[in-house]
Write a structure and sequence with these properties.
The chain is α/β, with parallel strands linked by helices and 587 residues long. Helices cover 33% and strands 18% of the residues. β14 and β15 form a beta hairpin. α7 runs antiparallel to α9 and α19 runs parallel beside α20. The chain starts with 8 loop residues before the first strand and ends in an 8-residue tail after the last strand. One of its GO terms (biological process) is 'de novo' IMP biosynthetic process.
């Protein structure tokens, strides 16, 4: 193994470095350009042809363009001795090469296959094939592979065909631009660091493995190849960050980003931008924060109209849709102000100067302020408003863990940041439809299609004598979309595009109904009720209690052997009953 020192000459191989503009800029101007011309380092660069042509190598570092045989050597990771003869590879022996010696550093950027095949513009099959990198992964693996012989390179003669190959103990293989600064530090040092080498080797195999997974998944999706589910597949995950702890303090945890092709251009909470709340490690997004934020974002993204969703322990406790997003927020809080405290608030529209105010005010007060001149909507006023107490007891200041929206104006962010140092403000893109859902069980995973159905995708069939009014049908569809996101057994009561009450997670549907009715109170009269699954019993059970409470319309999947009882019960009380033929269990 070659000892590193400031006077040593190192041979650096470059592969595909300038095929993508973003890579070019970060690579030359920030990273490699920062250390290649260093006077304390003497470097010889062997560049694959595309690298050399796209951008001249930095000066005064000596560069060599790799042509036919040398380029083959780079791609195969083949080392050379003083005679210019490769230790393995008879083809290269016959061809010969102008390059002498071995590589000390291998830097590779693979073809941008992810970006090409996931482009919203689409890509032809032949073009996608052209973007599958062959030489790059070969070179990465050759540089990172374990050693089969521990002899020093300078002790191996050309005629000695011993199976010595370069590996991570001798070659620094770099596939991530984030590692360039530490590479510079390493090359300028006087001591070797096997842990750093091992980390780069591990990262190299991970990188090439993820690349192979992407190609494999894309090929499986081709009409002439794939089926419903592949016999086997890998889920490539990229570590985003470690977390303070898991669901409970005694559990360790981390969050990963799904790097499957179907997720490349998709949104979701895992890839959300956090604008505020990183005061310390203690205040970073937690395991439970991610779960709750994901539940809130999944729910609010299902609505087409401007909507606010408030979630507590993954269940929506407040949902409202209005053209005026401020009014939607107020109504969502009113649905359950006690549960809203400490919850997650999500919007499906931009948060700007106007809606940002509402996080600091009492519900009655905001109406007066909203009607005043917009010139008064400044940070100082927002700070005053934030001290307003909850209408529940008049004393407790409203508190939220997270606010989520697809976009924030500059002024909106400024006002929100004034509410609390620890308020986590997330900017997220809409979730991708049609992706697979995974659930871990002992010894394996359950895989299913995501539940992407909306009211526009199904039929609300009237099975009762009474037809619902147009407003009742709208309420039923709204309640049905809400109940889809509530843990089973789930009941939602709604009216005028606003959730009034919700019952969730009970072992029996009757108990969930009673919780929802209690939350709705007197507003239940003429409201819509949605159930995530059919009612197993009607008389002296959930259906009859709902009818007696004054519910105007009920939406449920149907499918029970006692559906006739539910229909007869609704007919007796003059309640409209709708069957959707779609169940929405959520466990």
């Amino acid at each position: 193994m070659k000892p590193f020192s400031s006077t040593e000459c190192y041979t650096v191989s470059l592969q595909n470095l300038f095929r993508k503009q973003s890579v070019t800029e970060s690579l030359l101007r920030i990273s490699l350009a920062g250390f290649l011309p260093q006077p304390s380092l003497s470097l010889r660069l062997i560049a694959e042809a595309a690298t050399r042509i796209a951008r001249p190598l930095p000066q005064p570092t000596k560069g060599t363009q790799a042509k036919a045989p040398t380029c083959l050597a780079i791609m195969s990771g083949t080392p050379f001795d003083e005679l210019g003869t490769p230790f393995d590879g008879t083809l290269l022996i016959k061809l010969g090469t102008p390059f002498e010696g071995t590589f000390d550093v291998v830097v590779v950027n693979l073809y941008p296959f992810y970006e090409k095949v996931s482009s919203t513009d689409g890509i032809a099959f032949d073009d996608a094939i052209e973007n599958i990198d062959i030489g790059g992964p070969t070179m990465i693996r050759a540089a990172a592979k374990p050693s089969t012989n521990v002899q020093e390179p300078d002790r191996v003669l050309a005629q000695d065909r011993s199976p010595y190959t370069l590996n991570h103990k001798d070659v620094l293989v770099v596939v991530d631009s984030q590692d360039y600064p530490r590479l510079l530090e390493f090359l300028q040092g006087n001591q070797d660091d096997q842990e750093f080498r091992m980390m780069l080797a591990w990262k190299a195999f991970q990188h090439s493995g993820l690349y192979d997974c992407a190609v494999s998944e894309w090929l499986w999706k081709q009409p002439t190849v794939g089926g419903e589910y592949p016999p086997s597949f890998a889920v490539p995950l990229s570590l985003k960050s470690s977390l303070r702890y898991g669901e409970n303090p005694h559990q360790k945890a981390a969050v990963y980003v799904d790097k499957r092709l179907s997720e490349v251009n998709a949104g979701g909470i895992a890839s959300a931008i956090q604008h505020h709340g990183k005061v310390s490690k203690r205040n970073e997004m937690s395991y439970n924060n991610y779960l709750d934020a994901d539940a809130a974002w999944n729910c609010v993204c299902d609505f087409n109209n401007p909507t606010c969703v408030i979630v507590k322990h993954t269940n929506p406790c407040g949902v409202a849709s209005r053209d005026d997003i401020i009014e939607a927020y107020r109504l969502a809080v009113k649905a359950d102000p006690v549960s809203a405290f400490g919850g997650i608030v999500a919007f499906n529209t931009e948060v700007d100067e106007e809606p940002n105010m509402i996080f600091y005010e009492a519900l009655p007060l905001v109406s007066l302020i909203y009607r005043s001149s917009l010139s008064y909507l400044n940070v100082d006023l927002a700070k005053d408003i934030r001290e307003f107490r909850s209408p529940t007891d008049g004393e407790t200041r409203m508190f939220y863990e997270i606010v989520i929206a697809p976009k924030y104006s500059k002024k909106g962010l400024e006002i929100l940041r004034g509410k609390s140092k620890t308020l986590r403000i997330l900017e997220a893109s809409k979730n991708e439809k049609g992706k697979l859902s995974f659930r871990q069980i002992g010894g394996g995973l359950l895989v299913q299609d995501s539940d992407d159905l909306t009211p526009e995708n199904i039929q609300f069939n009237v099975v009762s004598e009474k037809n619902p009014q147009e407003s009742e049908l709208r309420d039923a569809k709204f309640a049905w979309l809400c109940v889809k996101h509530v843990k089973s057994n789930a009941i939602v009561i709604a009216k005028d595009n606003c959730m009034l009450g919700m019952g969730s997670g009970q072992p029996n549907r009757l108990e969930s109904l009673r919780i929802a009715l209690r939350k709705a109170g007197d507003k239940v009269k003429g409201a819509a009720l949605a159930s995530d699954a059919f009612f197993p019993f009607a008389w002296k059970d959930a259906v009859e209690e709902a009818c007696e409470s004054g519910i105007g319309v009920i939406a449920e999947p149907g499918g029970s052997i006692r559906d006739g009882d539910a229909i007869d019960c609704c007919n007796k009380y003059g309640v409209s009953l709708l069957f959707t033929n779609v169940r929405h269990f959520r466990h």
